[in-house]
């Protein structure tokens, strides 16, 4: 399927690399960026045939799918414009800044009979797929509880332009939360309610990375979010995302079942070490990964969506999954402001199991 890529910033390189040299069912026909020099540089580096504007992409009959990897503030507007033009869309996370906007996009895609996909697709990597297999096989019994912790002190010490991390649509919840919440939903199913408390330790941040050293940033979002998420299955999850922590010894993600516990690798990666301990064991042991996708495989969700289009079925990194994640994140903020539990209305799409016993670059539905 021929793809038009909108956005040629920091994250674009791994998408260009994988879509042009790893996955066999994707072809990047054109790229676009508000800074044309960035687009020209990617065209040269990855041998992309054309540099176009967004409007030119939407008018191009050879482009079937738009990959929207712009900043979060543009996710809704560009995705809506592409859907209105009759293009399938795969968009970086989050799906939109507001649940109402995300819901509109999902409904628009359904109305237009188009596919909508959304990052993160890290849950299709070897690490979380191995964990999913273990849970589905009943290795740890029924999941009872889980803990997920994304704790750091923000990005102003290393990122060249960290301002958007502290603007609306940023913060630890909207920036890193999608990786953790998407993994949890994929492994545990639909969430039904959220209770949370949020705050921020600093009203202002000072950039210490090289390019903008000394520049001050007004912090417009909460930078510490603590939530209890109750899942429909009965599993109770503790989630903490923070840019206010200098150091910690907390796990990335663990799931505790009636027959054992599962230590899950960083959900912002595709591989990592999976460890499990059963009721009759006294220590965690490493588990062999079940998939070859343990390196940075960003774009696997888009490639799988292309496969889903050809098979006429739902895709895994779907708009419905991203909408559920978006509602959970928005409900965390809402719960903190209103001081009460928020009942969720959205439902994620059902997972489609893939067969990982095939060569790298090819994808196949299991069975």
Quick summary of this structure?
This protein is of the alpha/beta class. The protein has 9 helices and 17 strands.
Overall 3D shape: globular
CATH architecture of the largest domain: 2-Layer Sandwich
CATH superfamily of the largest domain: Dihydrodipicolinate Reductase, domain 2
Structural class designation: alpha/beta
Q: What is the spatial order of strands in the main beta sheet? A: 16-15-14-13-7-12-11-8-17
The N- and C-terminal alpha carbons lie at a distance of 23 Å
Q: How is this structure best described in words?
A:
The protein has 367 residues and is α/β, with parallel strands linked by helices. The chain folds into two domains: 117 residues, Rossmann fold, CATH 3.40.50; 165 residues, Dihydrodipicolinate Reductase, domain 2, CATH 3.30.360. The strands form three sheets. A nine-stranded mixed beta sheet has the order 16-15-14-13-7-12-11-8-17, covered by helices on one side. Strands 3-2-1-4-5-6 form a six-stranded parallel beta sheet, with helices on both faces. A hairpin with a 6-residue loop joins β15 and β16. α4 runs parallel beside α5, α5 packs antiparallel against α9 and α7 crosses α9. The chain is globular, with a radius of gyration of 20 Å. The protein starts with a strand and ends in a 24-residue tail after the last strand. 48% of the residues are buried. The mean pLDDT is 96.
């Amino acid at each position: 399927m021929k793809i038009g890529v909108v956005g040629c910033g920091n994250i674009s390189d791994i998408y260009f690399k994988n879509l042009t040299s790893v996955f066999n069912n994707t072809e990047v026909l054109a790229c676009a960026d508000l800074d044309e020099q960035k687009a020209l540089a990617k065209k040269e580096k990855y041998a992309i045939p054309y540099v176009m504007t967004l409007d030119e992409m939407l008018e191009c009959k050879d482009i079937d799918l738009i990959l929207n990897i712009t900043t979060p503030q543009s996710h809704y507007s560009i995705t809506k414009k592409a859907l209105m033009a009759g293009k399938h869309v795969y968009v970086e996370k989050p799906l939109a800044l507001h649940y109402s906007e995300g819901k509109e996009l999902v409904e628009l895609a359904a109305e237009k009979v188009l596919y909508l996909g959304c990052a993160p697709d890290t849950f299709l990597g070897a690490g979380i797929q191995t964990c999913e297999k273990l849970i589905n096989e009943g290795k740890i019994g029924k999941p009872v509880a889980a803990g997920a912790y994304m704790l750091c002190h923000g990005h102003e010490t290393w990122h060249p332009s960290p301002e958007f991390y502290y603007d609306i649509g940023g913060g630890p919840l909207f920036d890193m939360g999608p990786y953790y919440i998407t993994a949890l939903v994929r492994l545990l199913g639909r969430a039904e309610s959220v209770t949370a408390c949020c705050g921020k330790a600093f009203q202002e941040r000072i950039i210490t990375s090289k390019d903008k050293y000394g520049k001050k940033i007004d912090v417009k979002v909460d930078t510490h979010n603590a939530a209890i998420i109750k899942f429909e299955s009965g599993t109770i999850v503790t989630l903490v995302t923070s840019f206010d922590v200098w150091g910690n010894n907390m796990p990335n993600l663990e799931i505790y079942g009636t027959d054992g516990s599962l230590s899950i690798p960083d959900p912002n990666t595709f591989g990592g070490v999976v460890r499990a301990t059963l009721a009759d064991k006294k220590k965690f042991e490493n588990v062999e990964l079940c998939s070859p996708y343990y390196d940075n495989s960003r774009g696997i969700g888009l490639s799988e969506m292309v496969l889903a289009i050809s098979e006429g079925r739902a895709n895994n990194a779907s708009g419905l999954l991203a909408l559920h994640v978006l509602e959970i994140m928005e409900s965390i903020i809402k719960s903190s402001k209103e001081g009460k539990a928020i009942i969720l209305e959205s439902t994620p799409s059902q997972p489609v199991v893939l067969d990982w016993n095939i060569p790298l670059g090819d994808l196949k539905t299991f069975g």
